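May I ask for a protein sequence together with how it folds?
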Amino acid sequence: MPHEKAGRRINAAGLIYPGRDAELRAFSVRASRPQTRLGSRRPEQKNKAVAGASDANEKSAKLKNRLTDSSCFRRCGKPWGLGPAYAWGIHLLATRAFMACFTCLLLCQSLVAQTSVILSVSNEKKLVVYSLDEAGKLKIESEIATTGKPGCSIANRSGTHLYVAMKASNSIATFSFAHETGLKLLGETHVGAAASYLAIDPTGSYLFSSYYQGGKIAVHRINDDATLQDKPIQMIQTDEKAHCIALDRSGTNVFVAHTGPEAIFQFTFDPKQGILTPNAKPKLVRKPGTGPRHLWFHPELDFAYGSDEQGSSVTVYQFDRETGTLSVVQTLSTLPDGFSGKNTTSDIEVHPSNKFVFVANRGSDTIASFSIDPKTGRLALLKHSQTVPFTRSFNISANGKYLVAAGQKSDKIRVFTIGDDGKTKLLSTSDTGKAPWWVHIIQNKQN
């Protein structure tokens, strides 16, 4: 039980608080104070002063009754031996703390919900920004017109900027991006041809581009404002149909897949100078009819995975870090059993869990999913999922939950969810504009 000692109150926990009467005196006006000053005033001033003191005493009494009768005093003050003023202060602090936590919770929920899908609608010369909800439904949030037909795209690691190749205008456009406001054009760099693939090095300092029609590759420095320098550091002629450019996880080895000469060109890269140098073994030649198209390096293991356009297959490559070269480990068909029609593969990605590989088929119109052996890097087929016709590109969200595929000749995009077993399940299909060419998902880290 709390008890009084020397004008102070000590509760059961041994904490010392001022007495209740002392607290209440802080909210009252002493009647004696104005009375001592009345003698020096005129009668009318005395009357006003007396009335003011009376009003102050009345307000003080009301405040005292309000504090002592309040629920916060009955619940917090009495059990802990607190006076009404202390109890009321604790009540205010608790209320503010609750509101702050509630606001943080709402903010976190809004961040988690922000998943954006950016689609290059090539024949309508526009980029469309969709929001993607937890159920896999897409909603158009904004659109932005482009100078040329937008093609492949790549976002920086933080998702604040997007680089898009433009056909016809033969340029690479830089956009800023925010989930709330969409895309804003920052600049456009003319490169003389339409890039077929874009990649950014791990430092975020350089943008690499390959050119299918031009048979070349280029390296551009990224400025502090995220735009590209007007002139490339390097423009290297390789061979016809340079389809994809990819970097290993160190960013010091660069590979260019060509469907024309059936080869993957190999380079070393100096990140200080931004210079590419042909490897001592300048290329890996594949069998005729294979058509190496796209490459994706495993984030942890020394393997790369490639889609073979003409071969309708997927190939596992061993990556030698010492020599910076690739060698073939395994090749598997990407086609469903019994399919005998015309087919080519297109895009390929490794799942963010590093456990699965996905490859798109154009013809059978399926996405083949494979499991990765964590020791050997070899693949085993899991499933074929029916997708939109002529899927040119797809992208997997950073959290590994969604796969969004764009059907170039179907004018549709399809959203799948990816299970823990690597198998996909259809969530939704949406109409788009003419020729959806490339799809890219930007997702908050909290998702």
